[in-house]
Amino acid sequence: MAMIGRSARLYSSPPLIPCNLNACCCTSVKVTPSCSNSHEIAAGGSLHKEAGERLLTTRLCPCGRRHFLGGAATMASRPIRPANASGPKSDYKDVLNRVHPPRPGWYEELYAWVLNSATEAYEAEVAEYKSRLFSELKGKAKEVLEIGIGTGPNLKYYDADVQVFGVDPNSKMERYACDAAIAAGLQPSSFSFTQAVGEAIPLDDASVDAVVGTLVLCSVEDVDRTLQEVKRVLKPGGIYLFVEHVAAKDGTALRFLQNVLNPLQQTLADGCHLTRQTGTEISKAGFSHLDLNIASLSSASFVNPHIYGMATK
């Protein structure tokens, strides 16, 4: 894979302080992980540990656009598997309600509105980096699941002929995601929104070519279970593309600040954790190959460092 020289901070669950990606430094590491081995990701002579998880739910796009509603019937034929990747089977809606209990409607609406309206400058700034990252999917993925799709800021980076299955635990994101799909030029039959959590993805085994998650594992309840679900729905050789913020190095002033602010971050940013060792979790998840970058963003305040890259099933 062609590695990205600089990191793009893509987010479904925003930090308290937005990031500026114009000034950042990053290093790249390549890991071939094993199910039985734990890994710590080394970068620039320092060790970064990490972990993560996210939520999702199911329903087709009722965004009020007639042509999208018409196309939804085609997407409705997509195989739906209301079960978990492992353990006892249960309805994915039950898992949704347990992992992501219903929030007040005003809270979810406000959060969706903020996410949609407060990131315009950021998205313009990171457009170059996102384009380079998502180019890894071109010619390799025709059916893509995006977990934690949020308001759909990534939809414009997919080819027009790609089928995108978007999932997010916040149903209020749906309207914005549908608008983003229309703006991106996706065909009515090429996009659907499903309210679900990453711990119980309502798709069949080996049903998609790629899974995309940008700043998702910071806010799921069970990181490992989410990653196993990602692997379950991927076809053999499928791609998992990720961007996540992770905990700072132990013993640093930044890590101390993250520990202090973590409870507030979880409250204000819909469960987002500042101190997860997500890179380590991904490396232990049993992917056959992992390309992982670590980036430090100069204006990202306490939401540092970041990892991004691709894993192969």
TrEMBL record:
InterPro entries noted in UniProt: Methyltransf_11, SAM-dependent_MTases_sf, Thiol_S-MT
Methyltransferase type domain segment(s): 145-242
Gene Ontology terms, MF aspect: S-adenosylmethionine-dependent methyltransferase activity
PANTHER family: METHYLTRANSFERASE LIKE 7A (PTHR45036:SF1), METHYLTRANSFERASE LIKE 7B (PTHR45036)
Protein name (database record): Methyltransferase type 11 domain-containing protein
Organism: Linum trigynum
Biological classification of the source: Eukaryota, Viridiplantae, Streptophyta, Embryophyta, Tracheophyta
